[in-house]
Amino acid sequence: MKPDHRFLRLLARLAVIEAASLVALGGAMLAGPRVAVTAAGALHGAVWLLYAWLILAMICLKMWDKKQAARLVICALLPLGGFVTARWCRRLLLQDALRQHQ
After folding, report:
1. What is the C-alpha separation between 80 and 82, in angstroms, rounded?
2. Where is the DUF3817 domain (predicted)?
3. Structural domain boundaries enclosing 45
4. Residue 16, Cβ density class (10 Å: 0-12 exposed, 13-18 middle, ≥19 buried)
């Protein structure tokens, strides 16, 4: 079963938010007060858990195999890897749209 478009769009958005929250966390650690680090860390952790939950849901619904899911998790662990994931999701959406119009 191929991934549903709604799941791909949500995954792309979460991946970008996750990567941006990591950047914000890094900035807070370098320049911000301790409360900013705590807030940015909590935000980043919550977004990462949502991202991981979505990947697990897609595995359970047979939309991804374990190899694709591992790629998504590895990208989430790499700094700015969420932007790579978002681009990949958008490419999959575009390819599917092109196939439907042929």
Report:
1. 5
2. 9-91
3. 5-100
4. middle
